[in-house]
Amino acid sequence: MDKLEMQSKDLVGVNIENIAKLFPNVITESKNEEGILEKKIDFDLLKQELSDTIVEGNKERYSLTWPGKKEAILAANMPINKTLRPVKKDSEDWDTTENMYIEGDNLEVLKILQESYLNKIKCIYIDPPYNTGKDFVYRDNFTGDKDEYLEESGQVDEEGNRLFQNNESNGRFHSDWLTMMYSRLKVARNLLKDDGIIFISIDENEVENLKKICNGILGENNFISQLVWNLKTGTQAGYFTRSHEYVLVYSKNKSVVTYFKDRSGGVIQHGALKKISKVNPASEVHFTAGSIEFEGEDAIFQGELGGSEKQFIKSDCMEFKNGLLKNDVVIEAGWAMKNQLLSWLRGEETFDSKGQRVLRFYFNSKGILFYEKERGTVHPKTVLDNVGNTKNGSDELKSLFGLKYFDFPKPTELLKYLIEIVTEKEDIILDFFSGSATTAQSVMQINADDGGNRKFIMVQLPEETNEKTDAYKAGYKNICEIGKERIRRAAKKIKEETNADIDYGFRVYKVDSTNMKDTFYSVNEIKQDFLTELESNIKDDRTSEDLLAQVMLDLGIELSLPIQSEKIEGKEVFYVADNALVACFDEDINEEVAKKIAERGPLKVVFRDRSFSNDSDKENIKEVFKKHSPDTDIKVL
At what angle do helices 615-628 and 591-598 cross, to 10 degrees? Predict the structure, then answer.
C-alpha cells in the first residue's frame, strides 16, 4: 500500500522534471545539507539550449525586476506542510453545497489547492490592495516554521500578524507590493483552465507594474484588455478628479479563448450581401424553389437589386408566392457569409465564425437576401459604464447589515457583468482577496437569474477588525466573520426574491498545520526519545474529517464533492462522490469491513497504518480487495 505524501506539491521539483524531459543534458546532481543527492539545473547549459547564438555571459534584456523578485519566485515554488480543516459549525448546507469559504493566507491556500483544482477554475476575480500607502500587504516566508526566525526576519510582527501597512515612506514601497502579488499570481495561474480568465481590479498607483508582472507570469500574448471602470463620481486627486479605476483582463491561453457570451438572448438580423471588390469578388449561388422565405406580399423581381451592395438575378426572374420562393433562381453577388449560406441551403446546422448559430436566410420585402442568427457573443466596450460604483457596493452591504462595514466594496453589478460574460452554468469562480464576499453574492444572483450551478471559492485572511469600528462593536471580530455572514444574508434575500432552486450554502475550511506529526516528514531525524511520539503519526487533536480533507487535497479530489458517511461494523466510513474515494481512519479494521467496502468497487481507498493490528492483517485486507475489487487503488497514512 502506497504512502500519501500529505503536503503541497513541490513545484520546483515538478519544474525540474519538466525541463529534464526537454533538455536531459542540463540536469546535474549536487548534495543537499543532509548529504542527499538532488537533481539540479545547469543554468549555463540551459541558457545555451534556449539560444541560437553563443551565450557568453549576462546581457541586458527587457524585463521588470525589483528587490525581492527572487524571493517571490521562491515563495511561490516552496512546498508547505499545511492543510485545510473543515469548520462545520460555520458552514451552511454542508452535505449538499459545492461552494467554499476558506480562511487563511491566500498564498498558502493557493498552494494547498494546487492538486485538487489544477486547470479547473474558469474565472478568477481579485480586488487586491491598491498599494495606496494606507492599505496592507502580506509578508511571506516558507523557508522555515520557527516563530523566532519569522519574527527576526521581519516576516511577522510580535503578535504573529502576516500583514503590515506599506507606507510610502517605506524604501521598498513598490517592491513589497510586487513581491506579494507576483507569488500569488504565479501560483494562481496553475489553477486556471486553458480558456480561463482572470480579472484584477486596480487603480493608477500600481496598474503599470501590475500589467508588467502579469505579462511576465501569464504572457504578454495572453493580455486581453485593460478596462476602465467609470465610477461616475470621484475624489479630487491632484489636478484632476479621479473618477475611474481599472480592471486588467488576462487569459491563461488566449488562443483557445472564445468570444464572450451574450446572455441577453434574442437574434441578430443583417444583410447577407457585401460590396463587390477584389477582396470580395462576385459569385453565383443557386436557390431552389421553396427553399427560402420571403418577407413581403407576392412579387416578381428581375435584373439588378440593391444599392452599393448589389445582387444580380441571372435567371429570367425571381418570383415569390405565399411567403416562399416559387421558382429556381441563380443570383450573383458579393456574399457576406457564402460558406454559411451554402451550408444552410444544404440543410446543415450552421454557425458563423464566432460560433453563433444561423437560424435562417430569407429575402426581405425588397428582394434582398438577409440572414438571422442567435445573439450568442458580445464584444464589451473597454469602458465599463452602468455597472455600479463603490457607493452602490456600500449601499448593498448596508441593506444587508444595516451599517457600513467596508469603505469601498465592489458592487455586485460589476462582478455579475464580468462573471456572466466568461462563464458557463457549471463553472468555478475563485476570489482569493474576497473581502466582503461580493463575488459570492454575485455568483448566487447569476445562478438565480439563469438557473446555473456555478460554484464559488472565497479565500480571505481573518484580518482583525478595528475595535473602534461598527463591525467590531456588532460582534464581527475579523473580516471572515463579515464575509460569511454576508453570504448567509445575501442567500436569504435572493431566495426570498426569486425562489430560485440553487445552491445557497458553503463549506468553511481553515488553513492549519498538517494533520501529520513532524516525524511523518522527518524520519531521518528520529531519536530514541521520540519513540513515545510514534504510537501515532497523526496529531492528537485531529478528527477523521480533518484527515479526510487532507487526503482529498493530496489525491487531487475537489473539496466541494458530496461526502457521505456510514457505520460498517461500528467503523466510520466516508464516501466521497459515491465511489471516487472511500476512507476509514478507525483502528482494527477487519476483513468483513474491508469486504463490504470492496464490494462497492471504489476507485481509491485510504486507511491509516494503525487501522491494521499487524502486517499480517494488512496483507489479508489487500487480498480481500484483490478478490472483490482488484482495480481499487489502496493507500495508507
Answer: 30
Residue pair 480/467 in contact (Cβ under 8 Å)? The answer is no
What are 438-495's pLDDT values in tens digits?
A: 999 999 999 999 999 999 999 999 988 888 888 888 999 999 999 999 999 999 999 9
**C-alpha span between 456 and 150 (Å, rounded):** 33
Domains of the chain: 2-61 (no CATH), 77-262+380-512 (3.40.50.150), 268-375 (no CATH), 525-636 (no CATH)
Count CB atoms within 10 A of the CB of residue 65: 11
Who's near 55: CB < 8 A, 6+ residues apart?
44, 47, 48
Q: Are 33 and 525 in contact (CB under 8 A)?
A: no
Name residue, grid cell 501560483.
187
Per-residue pLDDT tens digits for 200-235: 999 998 999 999 999 989 999 999 999 999 998 877
Specify the residue for cell string 485538487: 116
| Cell numbers given for 326 | 416559387
SS3 content of the chain, % helix, strand, coil (to 5): 30, 25, 40
Spacing of C-alpha 369 from chain mean position: 44
Residue 149's pLDDT is what? Answer: 33
Cα–Cα distance measured from residue 168 to residue 187, given in angstroms and rounded to the nearest whole number: 27
